């Protein structure tokens, strides 16, 4: 595949030799797999899986990849932290002036993907992102540490940083302002909710007979669940 492979290191063979899907399904085989018995909403099943993941020692199960597209239709992905899940959807936060914030404003269609290595589980959420109201974004902001608030306030996130001293100075100045006014909320901070239209749950099987279920939202707001070929 790669044309510049050196004879000393066969990169393809080396990568192929790295183990994958080494996790153990929760409850070793006792995973409920009849969609007729699934909860009526994907957020309820997500919370069940998340609780099992936390109890089973999955590291950082609330880290997920957010994918957006820019105004030329070119996709981009980055990891972030899930902040909440409820009937409305999946919440995350960041700066409205960041590339993801600008992209979401222009095109709110997005997806989130989770991979839990230890339990061999993947969850994919697709839908439309809407901004949370003032109290939600303010609470999210003030719950962050002083340093995290200062970085969020001072940072021109994802722009070129020509001199790292500019960053140090900007953050130090923002720390001083936030300590003087702990209720301060950056105008740029957003809490976003991905309101799902479909959510797919994927469970690895040690025998490679992986299990997949897809929740799809109907026009009346109710959900149907189907089993997918692996
Ligand atoms: C584990 C992890 C968690 C992160 N959490 C967040 C987050 O909650 N919000 C955020 O804006 N960026 C978060 N980031 C940084 C983003 O991945 C990204 O670098 C940043 O938001 C700029 O993305 P953009 O240029 O696409 O807007 C996190 C990165 C990692 C690796």
The CATH superfamily title: Electron Transport, Fmn-binding Protein, Chain A
Give the total of domains: 1
Major sheet summary line = 9 strands, antiparallel
Structural class: alpha+beta
* Helix percentage range: 25-40%
Order of helices and strands: HHEEEEHEEHHHEEE
Q: What is the count of β-strands?
A: 9
Bound molecules: flavin mononucleotide
Tell me the overall shape.
globular
Layout of helices and strands, plus pairs?
Layout: H1 11-16, H2 42-55, E1 63-69, E2 75-81, E3 84-85, E4 90-95, H3 99-106, E5 109-116, E6 121-131, H4 134-142, H5 146-154, H6 164-180, E7 189-203, E8 211-217, E9 223-228
Antiparallel strand pairs: 1-2, 1-5, 3-4, 4-7, 5-6, 6-7, 7-8, 8-9
Helix pairs in contact: 5-6
The chain binds flavin mononucleotide.
Protein model, in words:
The protein is α+β, with helices and mostly antiparallel strands and 230 residues long. The protein has a single domain, classed as Pnp Oxidase, Chain A. It has helices at 11-16, 42-55, 99-106, 134-142, 146-154, 164-180; strands at residues 63-69, 75-81, 84-85, 90-95, 109-116, 121-131, 189-203, 211-217, 223-228. Strands 1, 2, 3, 4, 5, 6, 7, 8 and 9 form a 9-stranded antiparallel sheet that branches. Flavin mononucleotide binds at residues 63, 76, 78-81, 92-94, 98-100, 157-158.
Essential attributes:
230 residues; alpha+beta; Pnp Oxidase, Chain A; 9-stranded antiparallel β-sheet; 27% helix; 30% strand; binds flavin mononucleotide
């Amino acid at each position: 595949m790669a044309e510049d492979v050196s004879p000393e290191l066969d990169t393809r063979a080396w990568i192929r030799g790295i183990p994958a899907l080494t996790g153990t399904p929760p409850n070793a085989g006792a995973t409920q797999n009849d969609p007729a018995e699934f909860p009526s909403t994907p957020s309820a099943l997500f919370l069940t899986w998340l609780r099992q993941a936390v109890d089973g020692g999955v590291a950082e199960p609330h880290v997920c990849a957010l994918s957006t597209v820019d105004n030329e239709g070119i996709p981009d992905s980055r990891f972030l932290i899930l902040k909440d899940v409820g009937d409305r959807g999946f919440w995350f936060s960041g700066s409205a002036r960041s590339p993801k914030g600008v992209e979401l404003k222009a095109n709110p269609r997005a997806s989130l993907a989770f991979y839990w290595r230890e339990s061999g589980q993947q969850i994919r959420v697709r839908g439309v992102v809407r901004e949370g109201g003032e109290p939600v974004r303010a609470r999210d902001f003030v719950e962050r540490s002083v340093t995290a608030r200062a970085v969020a306030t001072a940072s021109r996130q994802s722009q070129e940083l020509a001199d790292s001293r500019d960053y140090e100075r900007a953050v130090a100045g923002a720390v001083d302002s936030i300590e003087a006014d702990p209720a301060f909320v950056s105008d740029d901070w957003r809490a976003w909710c991905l309101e799902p239209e479909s959510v797919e749950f994927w469970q690895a099987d040690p025998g490679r007979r992986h299990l997949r279920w897809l929740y799809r939202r109907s026009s009346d707001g109710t959900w149907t669940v189907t089993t997918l070929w692996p």
